[in-house]
Amino acid sequence: MNDYNNYAAEKSALRKTVSIVAGIAALFFFLDRFSTHIFHVYNLISDDLSDLSELVFGDRRFFVAFLSVFIHTICLSVCIVLALTVLRQWEHFKFSMRKINSPNFGKNEKNSERHTNLTVPAVLISIGMLFTSGTIAGLSGNILGWFGITLPQNRSTGTYDGILWLIFELVATAVIPALFEEALFRGAVMGSLRRFGDGFALFVSSVLFALAHLNVGLMSVLNAFVFALVLGYFAIRTGSLRIAMLMHFMFNLAVIILERVQWLAEIDFTQNLTGSQGTNTLFSLLMPAVESVTNVLYYAFVPLCLILGIAGLVMFLRRCSKPFVLNDNGCRVPLYDRLKVTFVSPVMMCTVLFFSSVIVYNIIDATIRRIVGEMQI
Q1: What are the extents of the domains in the chain?
Q2: Rg of the chain's alpha carbons, rounded to an integer?
């Protein structure tokens, strides 16, 4: 009778926890979209903000972009505070996964490696994920293309010149996502699910993380899922949330570097032949060498990331004992029942339906745009 009562209580706790984390993932997606589009009303605002931005920063667009990211950060902060409070995971702000509500995790030190031992291979693997993400996106696009399905890609807002924009891009697309998304998905979401098994928590949190990244682009969902598996695995394996944040930051930094190199490779350097005749002559002599260097950097960067990723994987396998073993943490509910409870939960089903509707809308929109474009040609 006690076993049955414990089973029922654990199943009820799982159902409650899954409902909360699914609702939090939907809230994250909504706030992310809201904060991203809120400054589209900028076109309805007077030119005072642009004038102020040009006066202070020397760029009419920077102040509006700064305000957009600031509001985005506030919205994510609200979501994280709510998640950590409701799920009672505030201890993760100490950047320690060992203090999670997982009674058996601390007792089995064989499945938890020292944080310092795996930092270097983890960082190298995160950089190598740049090659993996590109491969996954290419294969997914080709497979769907066989069925006549064209998915819209995430639209880049462009890369702006200047050190101010570079710092802004670094903070907005590398630092903030690494800190906030890891605190939410690996800290609060995965942390609250780990008492039902590390592998189970890793899978469910990765699914929610992937669905929440529909705003980046449909082709990025599978990439986000695989990347979340890697981040969550290292967070569990090392017992530290900081290493997941570092890996997330390094991956985003690699993406920024690739975009910058691509931007340099596409520059028409002849536009810079201004000034005195001597300057023009000197630049004419240097221009072929500059273009060659940027092209080599662009085509060599991704293979270099692959080499670093393979090196990191080899280091990891040599340093880590039993790399593919995760704790079940004494959960009495069988894995099949855990998955069933998770994905038939009303809140989870509504969340998945919400995300699916976004996918269907984007597919239909992309198909209509393609058909209209072909008709106009």
Answers
A1: 2-376
A2: 24
pTM (global) more than 0.90: no
Q: Which amino acid, 183?
A: A
Q: For the segment 86-124, what is each residue's pLDDT rounded down to a tens digit?
A: 888 776 566 454 443 333 333 444 444 544 578 899 999
* Sequence letter at residue 339: L
- Give the separation between CA 57 and CA 200, rounded to whole angstroms: 48
CA distances from 137 to 18, 199, 304 (A): 29, 25, 19
CA dist 188 → 83, 107, 182 (Å): 6, 22, 9
Give CA–CA dist 237/110, Å, rounded. Answer: 10
C-alpha separations of 252 from 57, 170, 328 in Å: 25, 9, 31
Report yes or no: 230 and 125 within 8 Å, Cβ to Cβ.
yes
Cα–Cα distance for residue pair 191/83, rounded to 1 Å? 11
* CA 132/CA 137 separation, integer angstroms: 9
Give the pair of three-digit tokens for residue 31: 């706030």
Dihedral sign for Cα 87, 93, 99, 102, please: positive
Q: Report the distance separating Cα 344 and Cα 47, nearest Å.
A: 51
7 contacts: CB under 8 Å, gap ≥ 6: 332, 333
